[in-house]
Structure formats: structure tokens, C-alpha cells
Amino acid sequence: MKVSELRIQTARLWQSLEEMAQRGATPDGGVCRLALSDADKEGRDLFCDWLRNLGLTVQIDQVGNILAIRPGSQDEAPVLIGSHLDTVSTGGRFDGAAGVLAGLEVLRTLEEKGIRTRRPLGLVSFTNEEGARYTTDMMGSQAFCGELSVEQVWAIRGLDGTLVGEELRRIGYAGDFPCGAIRPYAYLELHIEQGPQLDRAGIPIGIVEAITGLTWLEVIVRGAANHAGTTPMDNRRDAALAAARIVASLPDLASSIPDQRATCGRFSVAPGIVNVIPHEAIFTVDLRNGDPARLLEAETQFRARVQEISSRSNVLAEIRLLGHVPPQRCDPQVVSVIESVATDLAYPSRRMVSGAGHDAQILARICPTAMIFIPSRDGVSHSPAEYSTPEALEAGANVLLHTALRLAGVERA
Ligand code: HGY
Ligand code: MN
Ligand code: MN
Question: Are the beta carbons of 360 and 187 closer than 8 angstroms?
């Protein structure tokens, strides 16, 4: 068989996705595999078993990233394929897992066809891409690229009060493989688009040229508890009302800046009793823009609005930075290779910007990187209704296979 005729086995890939989706399955057909949870451990264990069944040595690094390298004929920097297995709590079966398991299918295909690449081919599953339980998103890839020290990661405390370092030990993924020991030749990530563009256009392959930046903020509003019945409306320090006014101003903020998104994802009030004026409100804001200056402008404007609304509401507001990942362009050469592969395999494709953050935007700082998107039905993600078809997965994984082969080179069999 000629290398150009190589194709992945769709049924096997789909079966792996189905099995992985059982790890953290929720009754509504979704998946909850929060980073370092028991469900995450089950998914990790399954993935490691699959890697070992392929005869690969599995390395667990100091922050729990799972890495396996299939040797090439030459001992050089590897082409790395990756994504993540952790999900948000209302997750679907495809976000992250599609990329990790498409990478596994690439390795399975090469093994069964006896193809040897020149460069080694690596596969990695990064710890805590989502930032849902530990709000430092892309945590594992940041440590992998040296942007966060291992000690910093271990000391991160989750929303549930647990420490990353302790949870890594508890689930048996506090590895000793040194973070940063691998410097890839290039990095590829297949991912569901998580938006509607490809699905609406009926285009099977998205080629990501740039990935949005994001700024995550937590706002703590402090007022004064008081009686809901006896306290006149003009004599209150109502933390919930002030917080609601700030959140209600987000659409106006977003529409004032091109391509800006602003979302309040978490909102809580205290004491949370029906007849008590809340003395405290805590909420998060997720700001996104593909342009760094606009993202900064959005944050600046937001901070000003918080101060203006809180002083007008006679409450105090404190803003904490939960995380910031700048926008990132992908490598033009890798983008071109993906585009050429899609053309050669006769898959229509479209270049695009990612509205979601990905580990690839961290890897892009240390090596040539690009992403392959496949359509999300109705653009839905971070939801049990998240869905991509077997055909979409097949197309994406075949493009991933041949892009990896072009970057790694193939030893004449
Ligand atoms: O938040 C994101 O964009 C990604 O799903 N972690
Ligand atoms: Mn993802
Ligand atoms: Mn996600």
C-alpha cells in the first residue's frame, strides 16, 4: 500500500471515543471528567492501557501530563500530537477526547501498517486544559512549555479546596518525568470547532490560523446584610444588585469592541437567604478576543465599569485575575501543510480563527503549531448535546495522519 493511500480505521476510533465517554458519563448523555477527579483517573488509566497495548512506553510528567513517543528511524525532536481528556462538568464526549483519540488512532494505524517515520511521533494528553475545577486553564501545557513551574502547579487550589499536588498523588499521576524535557519539532491538535461555522458551511475541515486570547476575572462585591422587609430601597448596600448590574452591562461592553465576547459563568450570593439583603456576591467574567489590544481594552473598560457601578451602589468591589492567555497565531507553514493534505485527500477546508482556547496556543510558543477543526453539530459544545459525526472524525483524523507523516517524514518501508 502506498503511504498516500493510508487511512485511519473510523470504527475503531469511534469505539474508543464511546469507551472513553463511559469514564465520567452523565445520565443526560454527557461527560463530567473534571481534572484529577476519579472519572479523570479512569479516563487516564484507559488511555494509558491503550498506549501500552501499542507497545509504547508511557511517561507521566510531574504535573500529570501523559506522554508516549513512537520512535522514528532518527533520534530527533518529535512531531507531537495532543489535546486533553479533562472536561467541564457539563461536558460532551468530543471536546478534548476527539483530539487525543484521533492521535491514538494515527499511532494504531502506523503500527498496524508497519510504517516507520523518520522523526519520532509523540502523543500527549495535557492535564487540566479546561480550568473548570482548578481555574488555571491549559495548566498542563503551560507547565510542559515551562510557563508555570511544577511547584506553582502543585500549589494551585481548586474551587473545592483541594490542591493539585495532593490530587495528582491521590489518583496516581504525580509522575517524575521532568516537565519541559521534550521540545517538539512541531505540534498538531485536532479538535471539534465548538462553534457553528463549519457545520453551517458544510465544510469538513477547519484549519486554525489563530487562537483567541482570554482573560478570566473573579469579582467579589461586598455590601451589607440587612432585613429585606424593613430596609428602605434607598438605604441599602445590596451586593447582589450591584453584581447583577455589572453582569447586565457585559453585552454592552462586548458590542463596543470588535469581535469581543464577555460571559459571566459563575455567580453566587451570600448569605443566600430569601429575606436577607446579600452582603456579598462573587462572580466570574470570561473576556475573549483574537486581538491582544482589544482584549486589553475590554479588561480596562470592564474594570472601570465595576468601579463606577459599585461606587454608585455604595458597595466595595475587588477584582482578582484568574488567568490570562494571550491570542496566538499558528505557524503558517504547518497551516499550509494541513491545507495541502486536506486538498490531496479531497476534503474541502477553510482557514479560521478559534473562539475557544486550546493547549495549542501554549505549544505555539515553543514550536511550530497548528490545529485541525472538525464540525460541531449546531455549533454546540460544553454541553451533553455536543456531537460530531463519525465521518467528520474520519476526515479530521485522516488529515491529522497525513499531516503528521509529512512533518515527521516516512522511512521508505
Ligand atoms: O474555555 C475554552 O475556550 C476551552 O474550552 N478550554
Ligand atoms: Mn478543548
Ligand atoms: Mn473545552
Answer: yes
62 and 205 assigned to the same domain: yes
pLDDT tens digit sequence for 132-144: 999 999 999 999 9
Ligand 1 touching residue 61 (CB < 6 A)? no
Query: φ and ψ at 46, to 5 degrees?
Result: -65, -45
Residues 364 and 313 in one domain: no
pLDDT in tens, 340-377: 999 999 999 999 999 999 999 999 999 999 999 999 99
Ligand 1 centroid – CA 383 distance (Å): 12
Q: What is the pLDDT of residues 27-70, one digit of tens each?
A: 999 999 999 999 999 999 999 999 999 999 999 999 999 999 99
Any atom of ligand 1 within 6 Å of the Cβ of 357: yes
pLDDT higher than threshold 70 for residue 156? yes
DSSP lists the bridge partners of residue 222 as: 280, 316
Going by C-alpha positions, the residue among 413, 343, 386 that lies closest to residue 115 is 413
**What range does the domain containing 56 cover?**
3-212+328-412
Ligand 1 atom with least separation from CA of 137: 6
From the CA of 131, the nearest ligand is: 1
Percentages helix, strand, coil for the chain (3-state, rounded to 5) are: 35, 25, 40
Helix axes 390-408, 97-113, angle to 10 degrees: 60
- Rounded to the nearest 10°, the torsion over CA 238, 241, 244, 246 is -70
Place of cell 492501557: 49
- Domain boundary residue, one of 290, 325, 360: 325
Buried b vs exposed e over 298-325: b needs ≥16 C-beta within 10 Å?
bbebbeebbeebbeebebebeeeeebeb
